[in-house]
């Protein structure tokens, strides 16, 4: 059963037969055509945009093997498994293979028995590997995660800087570099470092329409998280926390609540960390509680949510981290909690960052401010997010603010009272005490300082504590107040606060709503109706069993989306099944009969006398 595309197969045929997709997505068609013709390309596409196909498909259409440079050794095997399921002859060479295994892959390559070969960059640069490649037929070089050339980025890999050698040694082989990092500086560096001056650049929209953005007021973070998770039973997702300790504690607590959560951070021993990552990738429905050490290349397509318990440091980080949700295109959530403490903590980290230049601190502050703007906006989150990356857009209908537009209120007077309370108490107290004073609470601290005698005492009794917290947080986000870290986080006034205090500037703030995020009920992808739900669950159970038997992740067998489409369409023949997106020739042969059996015995199909 040879499903290798025969020589001369068109890209469209390979797309349909091997990958089981009806059509190209976005720029894929142009990119594939360009590379099939032997052109160099630089592809900038968001996570989940479908980058892999841009090199996998040309590698199949062109003569010889596609060589894929990837820094993510841990994930190579998953790629190879997934391609194997499609009937594509794929292999990898990295440090996890012994000498014998490497030799056999090299032999297969020389014999022309490999379509796609994944290689770690340090391995590729070895003289022996380069010599083997020179004796092989090579369809193309793909340089994945190309932003790793950037010395300024998070993911810098020194070996990437030497990859221009590919251009020197193999001048006629097309090269395609791919990344999900959008900024122009990184793009310039990639072109320079990889000698891609002549390459055609393909920039896709960075919108991720299937991701629902929501940012909630932080009140009782654990309870809010639990509610969020309980609304999504069985979903796999990532919960990001700022510190290692918080990761450990949160994971342990979630387990006590009966959820399946695993911790991941750089302070754990490497073995445990790798084991947890492997379980997250292979098993279904695991919640990974992690620091940002858990990140690049988590190419699990069915991550259904990314939850932030703490604020990231910039919109770039937020976008990158949330982007790990919903790579399969099915609905996914990006959910974040945010409070005054986050503003204070992030500012503090920037101010205290040792050895950093003044410029660095200023840039970091500006980036943080942009993110705070995203948190505080009453408008569409997505519009603001895309605007930050230089893209326009209209309100999306798929963020918390679009779904339930927040009320705004004229907070000019409240802001004036808050600022004046800071001033009258000598700029020496944090928000908690200030709110007590404003609300006229009789506490020990109030009496100790004689604050019940101030004119501001009880001046804000008309507003509740949550509302006041919102006022302070938003004033901090706007830069009207700052925190003195030397003085235990005392709030102080800034120049920006002056016009507000004087009544020259009015302030409209969003009203905080308790648990405002509209619950999205989607145990399954949106296209699965309630009636199909039971069948969808049975298909998933069948898939789990297949995955277990073969020792591969479930999504490698079929994506949720494909199972959802099968549940909705209930195909009655192999031909009908072949029309479902994600069912290629090889998977049809291998799983088709079992699936039709399962559908035939479906109690909802009508034969059941109920
Ligand atoms: P990226 O590497 O850009 O994050 P992937 O290559 O992993 O994205 O693709 C994301 C998902 O989109 C995968 O699940 C893939 O199967 C799916 N996909 C890619 N191209 C198409 C297409 N033309 N039609 C349908 N699904 C596609
Ligand atoms: Zn929106």
Short description:
By secondary structure, this protein is an alpha/beta fold. It is built from 27 helices and 17 strands.
Question: Please, could you describe this protein's structure?
Answer:
With 610 residues, this protein is α/β, with parallel strands linked by helices. It is 44% helix and 12% strand. The protein is built from 27 helices and 17 strands. A seven-stranded parallel β-sheet has the order 3-4-2-5-6-1-7, sandwiched between helices. A six-stranded parallel β-sheet has the order 8-13-12-9-11-10, sandwiched between helices. β3, α5 and β4 form a beta-alpha-beta unit. It is globular, with a radius of gyration of 27 Å. It starts with 10 loop residues before the first helix and ends in a 10-residue tail after the last helix. Bound molecules: adenosine-5'-diphosphate and zinc ion (ZN). The site of adenosine-5'-diphosphate has 19 residues, from α3.
């Amino acid at each position: 059963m040879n499903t290798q595309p025969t020589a001369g197969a068109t890209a469209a045929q390979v797309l349909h037969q091997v990958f089981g997709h009806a059509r190209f997505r976005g720029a894929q068609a142009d990119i594939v055509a360009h590379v099939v013709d032997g052109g160099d390309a630089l592809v900038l596409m968001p996570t989940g945009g479908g980058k892999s196909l841009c090199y996998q498909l040309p590698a199949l259409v062109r003569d010889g093997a596609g060589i894929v440079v990837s820094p993510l050794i841990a994930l190579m095997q998953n790629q190879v498994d997934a391609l194997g399921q499609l009937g594509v002859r794929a292999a990898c060479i990295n440090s996890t293979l012994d000498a014998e295994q490497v030799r056999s892959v090299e032999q297969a390559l020389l014999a022309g028995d490999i379509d796609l070969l994944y290689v770690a960059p340090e391995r590729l640069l070895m003289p022996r590997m380069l010599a083997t490649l020179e004796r092989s037929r090579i369809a193309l070089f793909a340089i994945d995660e190309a932003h790793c050339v950037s010395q300024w980025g998070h993911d810098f890999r020194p070996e990437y800087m030497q990859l221009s050698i590919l251009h020197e040694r193999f001048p006629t082989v097309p090269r395609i570099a791919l990344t999900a990092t959008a900024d122009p500086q990184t793009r310039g560096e990639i072109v320079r470092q990889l000698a891609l001056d002549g390459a055609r650049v393909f920039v896709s929209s960075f919108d991720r329409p299937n991701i629902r953005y929501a940012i909630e007021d932080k009140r009782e973070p654990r309870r809010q998280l639990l509610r969020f998770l309980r609304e999504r039973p069985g979903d796999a997702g990532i919960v990001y926390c700022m510190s290692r300790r918080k990761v450990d504690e949160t994971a342990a607590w979630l387990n006590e609540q009966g959820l399946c959560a695993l911790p991941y951070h750089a302070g754990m021993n490497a073995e445990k960390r790798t084991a947890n990552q492997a379980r997250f990738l292979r098993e279904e429905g695991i919640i990974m509680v992690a620091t940002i050490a858990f990140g690049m290349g988590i190419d699990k397509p069915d991550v259904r949510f990314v939850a932030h318990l703490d604020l990231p440091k910039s919109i770039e980080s937020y976008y990158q981290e949330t982007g790990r949700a919903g790579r399969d295109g099915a609905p996914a959530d990006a959910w974040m909690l945010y409070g005054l403490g986050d503003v204070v903590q992030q500012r503090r980290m920037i101010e205290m960052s040792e050895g950093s230049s003044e410029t660095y601190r200023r840039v970091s502050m500006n980036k943080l401010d942009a993110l705070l703007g995203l948190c505080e906006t009453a408008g569409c989150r997505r519009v603001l997010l895309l605007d930050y990356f230089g893209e326009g857009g209209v309100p999306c209908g798929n963020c918390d603010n679009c779904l339930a537009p927040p009320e705004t209120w004229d907070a000019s007077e409240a802001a004036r009272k808050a600022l004046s309370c800071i001033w009258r108490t000598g700029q020496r107290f944090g928000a908690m005490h200030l709110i007590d004073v404003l609300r006229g609470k009789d506490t020990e601290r109030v009496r100790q300082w004689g604050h019940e005698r101030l004119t501001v005492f009880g001046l804000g009794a008309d507003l509740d504590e949550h509302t006041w917290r919102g006022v302070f947080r938003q004033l901090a986000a706007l830069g009207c107040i700052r925190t003195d870290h030397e003085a235990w986080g005392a709030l102080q006034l800034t120049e920006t606060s002056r016009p507000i205090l004087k009544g020259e500037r009015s302030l409209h703030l969003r009203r905080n709503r308790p648990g405002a995020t509209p619950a999205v009920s989607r145990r399954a992808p949106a296209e699965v109706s309630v009636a199909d739900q039971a069948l969808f669950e049975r298909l998933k159970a069948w898939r789990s069993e297949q995955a277990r038997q073969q020792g591969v992740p479930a999504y490698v067998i079929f994506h949720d989306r494909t199972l959802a489409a099968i549940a909705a369409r209930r195909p009655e023949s192999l031909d009908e099944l072949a029309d479902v997106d994600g069912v290629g020739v090889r998977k049809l042969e291998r799983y088709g009969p079992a699936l039709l059996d399962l559908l035939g015995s479906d109690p909802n199909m009508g034969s059941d006398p109920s």
